[in-house]
Amino acid sequence: MGDTYTVGQYLVDRLRELGLGHLFSVAGDYSIEWVNSYVEKSDIQVIEEVNELNAGYAADGYARLKGIGALCVTYSAGSLCATNAIAGCYVEKVPVVLINGAPSVQKTLRFEQTGYSSHHFISGRETDRQVFEYITAATVRIDSPHLAPMLIDYALTQCITERRPVYVELLEDMVDLECTRPSNALKAAPDISDEDSLNQSIAQISERLQNATKPLIWIGVEIDRFGLHDQAERLIQDLKIPYVTELLSKAILSEDDVQFAGVFDGQSSSSYVQSLVKDSDFVLALGVWLTDINDLGWPIDLDKTAFASWDTVKYGTIFNAQVSLADLVNGLIDKRLTCKPQSLPAKTARQAPIVNPTGEITYQGFYDFIQQQIDGNTIVGADASLNYFGSLLLEVGARRGFIVQSSYSAIGYIGPAATGVSLAKQANQRLLVFAGDGGFQMTAQCLSTQTRFNLNPIIFVMDNGIYGVEQWLADASVFHGNRPFYTSCILHRWNYSKLAEVFGCRGWKVDTYGELEDAISGAKENLNSPSIIQVVVPQRSIPNNANWKAS
């Protein structure tokens, strides 16, 4: 290739410029030339994944900490396997780039004009692109070296602006063709607020904050997605009032903060948080997304809650459109507001529970026990399962120290997402992951990738033999009586700890608290591979904060 600058190099350079350090990839002949000749020779490390779904979840977990993630797959048979992961990124505003290696122009024309098919074709050049149009912020097809720089720049700019996934279809015969070099660095397009809407919103919210007797801040996930952590902390400190988060935004600010009251997640919240929300006479919800997982069983009082999200402010009958969350928060800071004094949450250190070392582990007992294993260098991840409830009340001191996909809630997400988080986290941090056994069965091969690359998440698989959260959602009364579980919710039992022998990592099966303590000690010492701890719990055991739903 000499000094020739190519399309393949352009894409690599732009991804590296945006901070990408790892590319999750599954080998495919339409994409392998770009990976081998360009990515492998760059500063981006290729993480060879076991399947496209896991690669997508890994890129998602990586992007939540790094601000950009990427995976490379092959046409149709590969890319369509990743659609569920990309859909989750779209819903939860996670910036991931899907690079799809595609058949050449010649192969495409031959198929469309004569019917002679190359492998992986379905119906021609538009199939994959049309699928991903619905779940990405941009889809581009690189079939011209002259247009490649413009199309790549457009897609990547959309990715970092919208904080959503984008789709880049890279034809195999384009990779080595010459193109122009990048000129200016890529930047996210700035949010533009309507001046009148912004000023009205600042004035209305300022008035309510100052006049309220018990105002409350509700910090949502958009604070994290748009990088507004420092500004949010500044506003909270200036106002000197308590704040809560939601499950999706848990620990995006350190939960050691003296003004942090807890996670508000409807009736699954602590009694203190429920009382705080109920008694508050004004709630400012910054970047909060309302979902049935984030307001469990709780009727949100829209007359006392001002929602600033999705570039709008909604408060009672007030609706102000085109209001940037960043502009709103900065505007409120500039007002130097003072609120009526109120008591802040009382911070008391949790005492280690007294347990019988030979006692049977319960779901709630496990979470009471595990709190002592979480410090300021711990990242916690929870899957769509009954672990939502248990992990909700854990105290996590690390800023951005909690990973969950609670809006899209794809069962099986957290195991492979832990691969990406492990690569993106700080060197001094340790990742603890809580998975349901049903979800873990879907993506268990994550252990293979983690072992291959010497990653060391500690994965707790809660083994109760059922899709517990699905049974809970459909009919929670089963957990409080003797009626049988739905047949569709009963799992084929695995010996999860024995998977360590298959993948070359470490594994433990625990039935008692003494065994659990020993397993955790062993897992903490295992620094070069994942640790899987199979935690056997009774089928009808659920976390205490899930007991409110009896039917």
UniProtKB/TrEMBL annotation:
Domain called Thiamine pyrophosphate enzyme TPP-binding: residue spans: 395-535
Necessary cofactors: Mg(2+); thiamine diphosphate
Native species: Rhizobium etli (strain ATCC 51251 / DSM 11541 / JCM 21823 / NBRC 15573 / CFN 42)
One Gene Ontology cellular component annotation held by this UniProt entry: cytosol
Domain Thiamine pyrophosphate enzyme N-terminal TPP-binding: 6-109
Reactions mediated catalytically: a 2-oxocarboxylate + H(+) = an aldehyde + CO2
GO biological process, one term: aromatic amino acid family catabolic process to alcohol via Ehrlich pathway
Keywords: Decarboxylase, Lyase, Magnesium, Metal-binding, Plasmid, Pyruvate, Thiamine pyrophosphate
Residues engaged in binding Mg(2+): 437, 464
Enzyme Commission code(s) on record: 4.1.1.1
One example GO MF annotation: magnesium ion binding
Family: Belongs to the TPP enzyme family.
Protein name, per record: pyruvate decarboxylase
Free-text remark on how the cofactor is bound: Binds 1 Mg(2+) per subunit.
Taxonomic superkingdom: Bacteria
Keyword flag Nuclease: no
Any one Pfam family match given in the protein's UniProt record, by short name: TPP_enzyme_N
InterPro entries assigned to the protein according to its UniProt record, in alphabetical order: DHS-like_NAD/FAD-binding_dom, PDC/IPDC-like, THDP-binding, Thiamin_PyroP_enz_cen_dom, Thiamin_PyroP_enz_TPP-bd_dom, TPP_enzyme_TPP-bd, TPP_PYR_PDC_IPDC-like
Domain Thiamine pyrophosphate enzyme central: 202-299
